[in-house]
Amino acid sequence: MKIRRLSRWAFVVAFGAHAGFALAAAPMAEHPQAETQTLDLAKRAIALRSVAGPGDETPKVAALFADALVKGGFRAKDVQIIRAGSTAYLIARWPGTDPTLKPVVLLGHMDVVEAQSKDWQRDPFTPVVENGYLFGRGSTDMKLDDTLAIATLSELRRQGFKPRRGIVVAFSGDEETTMKTGALIADRLRDAELVLNVDGANGVLDERTGKPAYFTWEGAEKTYADFEMTVTNPGGHSSEPRAVNAIDELASALLRLQAYRFKPELNALTRTYFEHAAQWEKPETGAAMRAFAADPGNQKAIDVLSADPSMIGKIGTTCVVTMIRGGHAFNALPQRATANINCRIFPGHPRLAIMRELSDAAKDPQIQFRDATEGSVATDASPIRPDVMNALRMAVEGVYPGLPVVAAMSSGASDSMWFRALGVPSYGISPIFIKNSDEFAHGLNERTPVMTIRPSLDILLSTISSLTR
């Protein structure tokens, strides 16, 4: 449902080293079986077209993952695939030695965003490893993360690990669309102690050196919303043009919305992020971040941050047109034209208020707005739990000593919101390290560096074992 990594943004520096710290990777343990399994399973999953609509192969991904979990040591009776319409979701349980303790949920999703082969340099559903990258739809969002989680649990079993607190693997099947299976999963697992969502935040590689710059974890998210705007008209014969044309009217309003900017804003958490994270950005961006933290009305800082796709979502609500439909025949004046406006709402603003603001910005009383949001609820941030923070700090420290660990908030929706809505803390902890410039989730030529697999496994092995032992 969301643009995965560019949309994430840190708001609290939880742990970290000073700028200029001489970072050196710690010797990483080798887990050849887990590394091989991660990549091979990711390739097989990417090859399955788990896209909503006719031919959705998400149930096949679920079967692939279920088989891998059973081969990795899960009892077949503890692995369930539950069909939900054309899709499916998976729940697998690894019982803990202390049944009185609530389980930890390892969360992800199996579906991907649609991809048109004709637009890609490589077929999106034919996985390819080239120049050190795994290419294919889902390589970043998020089949590689799924297989990292599966391989990690298989490795823990090989090592003889016995969790005191139970572990539940839960993969939804429609996170990129209606998110209904995520809600079903959360309802079934509402007794969980906490959720570790491998579809959230990530490690960031320095653009110049390619070395790890910092690691983020995700504790909150903006509210997802879709608003439908519609123009209707009596229409008529195309040989008799009229002054008012539904498509023209819609297009004019869309241009006004394109030029509209919601008021930039801060809260205590985001101010802390801009003040601290500026040191990791290029000079112009870093200066704008500090200036914005000091004064959210600083127009120069706003202009710089708004021009950066990875930053504009960090300074307030954003709305953008994502789909348009209009007309009913080549030789007729359009009777209806409709557009979908997708918004990521800064915490504290109800959807109705944003829809009204859009209507005012469109400046056309003839345009009707409707809240078309499906599968989204506003939620509070998860608490900053010392056990989770310590587990993440130790995991990252074990691979990259001194690497800053930073909390993050997503500008889009994830399945974490369903758990947060039920009062279950959820934390995004994707262990993948990637450059911002290599971020193509939901876009063309999606890819992720293969070199991230080994440290990702180490981070997950440490985090999961720390929180369940």
From TrEMBL:
GO terms for biological process: proteolysis. The lineage of its organism: Bacteria, Pseudomonadati, Pseudomonadota, Alphaproteobacteria, Acetobacterales. This is M20/M25/M40 family metallo-hydrolase. Belongs to the peptidase M20A family. Keywords: Hydrolase, Metal-binding, Protease, Signal, Zinc. Residues 1-24 form the signal peptide. The keyword DNA-binding does not apply. Pfam families: M20_dimer, Peptidase_M20. Residues 220-366 form the Peptidase M20 dimerisation domain. The keyword Hydrolase applies. It comes from Brytella acorum. GO terms for molecular function: metal ion binding; peptidase activity. SUPFAM superfamilies: Bacterial exopeptidase dimerisation domain, Zn-dependent exopeptidases. It comes from the Bacteria.
